[in-house]
Design goal:
With 393 residues, this protein is α+β, with helices and mostly antiparallel strands. It is 48% helix and 12% strand. The strands form four sheets. It has a five-stranded antiparallel sheet with strand order 1-2-3-7-6, with helices on one face. It has a three-stranded antiparallel sheet with strand order 8-10-11. The chain binds 5-S-methyl-5-thio-alpha-D-ribofuranose and magnesium ion. 5-S-methyl-5-thio-alpha-D-ribofuranose is lined by residues 39-40, 63, 172-173, 176, 228, 347-348.
Amino acid sequence: MSAQLLDVASVPAYIASQPHLAALVDASTLTVVEVGDGNLNLVFIATDAGGASLVLKQSLPYVRMVGESWPLSQDRIIAEARGFDAAVEFTPESVPAYYGLDEPRRVIAMQDLSGWTVWRRALNEGRISPGAAAAIGRYVARIGFGTSVFAREPGHVKQAAADAINPELRKITEDLVFTQPYIDHPDNGWHPEIEAEVLALRDGGLVDEVGVLKYHFTTHAEALIHGDLHTGSVFVPDGEADVAAKVFDIEFSFYGPVAFDLGAFFGNVIIAQARAAVLDRPAEFRDWLDGLVGEAWEAFEAEFRALWPTRTDTFYSDTVRDRWLRYTFTDAIGYGGAKAIRRIVGLAKASDIETLDRADYTVAATAVLRTARAWIEGRETFATAADLPRPLR
Ligand code: SR1
Ligand code: MG
């Protein structure tokens, strides 16, 4: 049975009924707006007369972007709470302040990040966010190490992986990222100008490579990953802040390959680069974009190496560390390519490309598909981020 859904009228009474939330805002003077612009959930900002505010997020019993014809368990909010718990344990400054889960109502509460902007929007506007990519790299390293067998007792990890199984949302990713872009599917769509580019993705060679990546995604239960770490799942500050990026929307979390979180970000860098190129953004912005994959990877690797001496099982030698880092880089590049392709071809596209005029869309989308393919097919040959092909450079 579904949990009772909130609306703007019922949020004040809901907050008043939750003492830990009523301590944060004056529930008697709240103004509430529903701001959910993602694909899945309800999101409310509640602000009191004194300006204190908080955010409530409630999972709907269906996929918001499609409607009630696509039912989806509200249990995904429990996966999100699990992701917040891990972030609070290993890298608390990397997420909005977390005020907890109301499991029966399928609601979580968190800090209202006014003064911050969703990174995809900032990128679309051509804004430079210094250090944000490095902050993402550190976030992935800390949780990827902290929840893995490198840091935790193996029996604990097995139980944690079972608890975090999240099958419905993993299936969405398996279908939307790895399968549907390469087959005829009613949820796919593109403008006719790129039809030949899209159909060219279906040749056996690329599909085989994506199949290998899909298998790794499905079977590599390494650590509790975010599961959907694109630039729409990150806030960047509008001014000075304690950290250069904060991560949110953790409902796709499960025990999976750490490389997938890095790849999700990398793939969205391709998309941002293509947009910046066709809009002829200033060289300073485009050069900064070109450095983001390297910035994220180098921060990730440095953090992982710094944590390595704290591992609980020293049977894992430094050679194991180095080989783990190498295949994580390789797979992250592959996942990045797959994540970029799905945002052009499949359900749930990226505003970076979709808001371009048709001529720019055609150039940018074509460049994304060709670059992404080169990443997937060449992923084992790239030694560093500097070797990666870039769109329209
Ligand atoms: C049906 S859910 C569509 C997409 O939204 C989320 O952001 C994930 O990327 C998912 O694939
Ligand atoms: Mg999301």
